[in-house]
Design brief:
The chain is α+β, with helices and mostly antiparallel strands. It is 55% helix and 13% strand. The longest helix is centred in the middle third of the chain and has 29 residues.
Length: 519
């Protein structure tokens, strides 16, 4: 479909915007916003509707929405002052008010457009299938194709390490390079549900990379982000951007698959659906949700007893519950350990399996084995942000707080919007405490609690750091919060249950909590 307005042409099939036949660079999310306003130009589109359609109902700040509207106006030659094309309707929303002519995108005719007949496509595989299209080089220099191609190829390679996803090989997805093919047609031809697309623009020593994850079966956009970097080492920047994109895409795919599983009737759920439902509970980081996750994982394992990912996640969930003080450690360890060893036996190439095993080794005080298991999980999936964080807390418990802090920061950089980012901040807080950097510990703990006010680990670190600083008022309020989050907490619990390898670290942590008033 083509929309002609003012001196612009917007082509939804090619996903292109041009002015006087000159292409206009526009971010994918802004493009979708303009299209939605045009298609609904006979009425006012509310802010809630835009958030639902463009951001899929995710929490969006007023400033983010305003910036996207401003970007849409700029792209089509409008402004907030004139509002000649996109008008703000006070307390209601927005409306496209320009004159528009619609044409068939295939032959340019202005007659009513009928749906194109879809060619038969490949069936979707049993795993979530994804294709990464060649990123568009928007630098105006064909010599820079190597960089945009390299980003796409690296993303394909990194996603292929996530063995529970079906990733289309590079040679198949690169067939579409330079071709104007609708994303839905590409998905049908390749037999995928999800498509990653993006663009690269280099100018001098700066590069801007935009990426977007789409569900081609519904036409919805699951995630979009833009990265601006200075290029000192081009390949280091390429690696950094690839890591960031893959780390962001993985939880979005889980969330999308979880949402699909929620729509299925209970009797039709398979093991994958149950694991996706379990993950949606596990990431909520509450006692009740952790128990709900275990229930669904046990059902998945009953269907498929050799499901390595399910077994690894079950071991992790059990250990996390005991670590938070929600379950008895002595009773939990054998159950988690059995699931972890079964996970590795079932699938030695699954990162979740080794993650679960590392977590159980840690609380068995097998520090070298725990570190080795987490390192193996990271070799299998270098972008597994949660494993970076749990590897970090293991290093801290082993007395290597600087390495632990670096691992926690790596997790935060890889996945800053992760549901577990509160835990990553909590690990960083604990690392700073062990390093006697109490002010920094308090800062990280507060950020963790800002995201998750009930996260026990952050309450512990905040209380201990305030105690060591002698800040009585903060220590008292922090201890009150800790007791709400973990009613059974005591110095005896801390010294017996938390696996600190060095006696001086155990005494240091206990002293901070003791000074805060914990007995």
């Amino acid at each position: 479909m083509q929309f002609l307005f003012s001196d612009h042409l917007l082509d939804t099939d090619r996903r292109e915007l041009s002015r006087d036949q000159v292409p206009v660079a526009v971010e994918p999310q802004v493009f979708d916003l303009v299209v939605h306003l045009m298609r609904n130009r006979d009425r006012v589109v509310t802010k809630d509707e835009l958030i639902d359609k463009i951001w899929l109902g995710r929490s969006v700040s007023e400033s983010t929405l305003t910036s996207r509207i401003n970007a849409a106006r700029k792209a089509i030659g409008d402004s907030g002052a004139s509002q000649a094309l996109i008008r703000t309707v006070a307390r209601k929303g927005f409306r496209f008010v320009g004159d528009v002519e619609m044409r068939n995108g295939r032959d340019g005719s202005a007659e009513p457009v009928s749906q194109a007949r879809e060619t038969p496509g490949l069936p979707l595989p049993d795993r979530p299938a994804i294709a990464v299209l060649p990123f568009t080089n928007m630098s105006g220099d064909r010599e820079q194709d190597y960089f945009s191609d390299g980003i796409s190829e690296d993303i394909i390679t990194a996603l292929s390490k996530l063995r529970w996803f079906f990733v289309i090989a590079r040679n198949s997805s690169f067939v579409y390079k330079g071709r104007a093919v609708h994303i839905g047609a590409i998905a049908r031809e390749l037999g995928v549900r999800y498509v990653v697309e993006g663009s690269v623009r280099r100018s001098g020593d700066r590069v801007r990379i935009s990426a977007q994850l789409n569900d081609a079966t519904t036409g919805s956009h699951l995630w979009a982000e833009r990265y601006d970097r200075s290029i000192a080492d081009v390949f280091a920047v390429q690696d950094e951007i690839t890591d960031a994109i893959v780390a962001a895409i993985e939880p979005q795919l889980y969330a999308a698959e979880s949402f699909r599983a929620q729509q299925k009737p209970p009797g039709s759920l398979d093991a994958w659906d149950l694991v996706m439902r379990a993950l949606s509970h596990y990431w909520r980081i509450t006692r009740g949700d952790n128990a709900a996750a275990q229930e669904r994982l046990e059902k998945a394992i009953a269907i498929d007893p050799a499901y390595g990912k399910a077994l690894g996640l079950l071991a992790t969930s059990h250990m996390f519950g005991a670590h938070m003080g929600w379950a008895d450690m002595a009773a939990t360890l054998p159950v988690a350990e059995h699931a972890a060893f079964a996970a590795v036996e079932a699938d030695r190439d699954d990162a979740w399996a080794h993650h679960g095993l590392g977590y159980t080794h840690l609380f068995r005080r097998r520090f070298d084995d725990a570190i080795a298991a987490f390192e193996l999980a990271l070799r299998l999936n270098p972008n597994f942000a949660m494993t970076h964080a749990f590897y970090g807390v293991t290093l801290c418990y082993a007395g290597r707080w600087e390495d632990g802090d670096a691992a926690a920061r790596r997790a935060l950089r890889l996945s800053p919007r992760d549901p577990f980012s509160a835990i990553y901040c909590g690990v960083a807080a604990y690392a700073q405490f062990i390093g006697h950097r109490y002010e920094d510990a308090i800062q990280f703990a507060r950020e963790s609690l800002r995201q998750r006010s009930d996260f026990v680990g952050a309450h512990r670190a905040l209380t201990a750091a305030a105690g060591m600083l002698g800040n009585r008022e903060l220590a008292a309020s922090a201890l009150e919060g800790l007791r709400r989050a973990q009613p059974n907490v005591s110095l005896a619990w801390i010294t017996s249950e938390l696996p600190m390898q060095r006696a001086e670290d155990r005494e240091h942590y206990s002293e901070g909590l003791r000074r805060a008033g914990l007995r």
